[in-house]
Specification:
Length: 213
């Protein structure tokens, strides 16, 4: 925060920084529309520039390539999920409440993503191909590893407190990841929020019944 009222330079700097961030956000929002409509491969920088109402060269002032834009979208989504995870782990909720809340909140976040969800699903498939064929590491792989370890920690706590049955924690944590991935696909296929909410609630209750002692 700048308190020097007699100097124009700090104010100018702040305005330039705000303009920079606003333009960057404009490009990201345009990219989301283009990628959701045309797909990651067909969506071009030129299309993003047109959607944003700016020149193609301006996009390159903020992002070197489409991959840079992909990473920003990934990081945004993962940072939101990590925040939820941290808040849950530091809460006074029981392990049972933590796990069910994690699934409920996670699915609610997916339901509110709109076009971003379509992009995330494509990035997920792209990351899988890259991981299998040895290309650059993806944030998805890191996220899944961190998420799995976090779930294992909650499961361990639940077993210790006598809430959960004995289990292979890594296996159940992996199953929970697959369970949530599958629900996301069903949400896209059903394309009906009201109907999906009923499906989601029953699915989560069934999962929890399978691990409770």
């Amino acid at each position: 925060m700048f308190l020097c009222l007699n100097s124009d330079r700090p104010v100018s700097h702040n305005m330039e920084e705000r303009d920079y961030m606003n333009k960057k956000q404009l490009i990201i929002e345009a990219a989301i529309k283009v990628f959701a409509r045309d797909g990651l491969e067909k969506g071009k920088i030129a299309d993003i520039a047109k959607e944003a109402g700016i020149g193609k060269g301006t996009v390159y002032e903020y992002f070197r390539s489409k991959d840079d834009i992909f990473k920003v979208i990934e990081e945004s989504v993962f940072s939101d999920f990590n925040l939820v995870f941290k808040e849950l782990n530091s809460s006074t909720l029981s392990p049972t409440e933590k796990l069910s809340t994690l699934m409920e909140t996670g699915m609610d976040m997916f339901m509110e993503m709109g076009d971003i969800l379509l992009i995330i699903m494509e990035l997920w498939a792209q990351a899988g191909r890259g991981h299998v064929h040895g290309s650059d590491p993806s944030l998805f792989v890191e996220y899944y590893d961190d998420f799995r370890k976090g779930v294992e920690s909650i499961l361990s706590e639940g077993i210790l407190f006598g809430e959960f049955r004995d289990m292979n924690k890594e296996g159940v944590a992996t199953l929970l990841l697959a369970f949530m991935d599958g629900l996301v696909w069903q949400f896209v296929i059903l394309n009906d929020k009201k109907k999906f909410k009923k499906v989601k609630s029953e699915a989560i209750e069934s999962f929890m019944r399978g691990i409770l002692k």
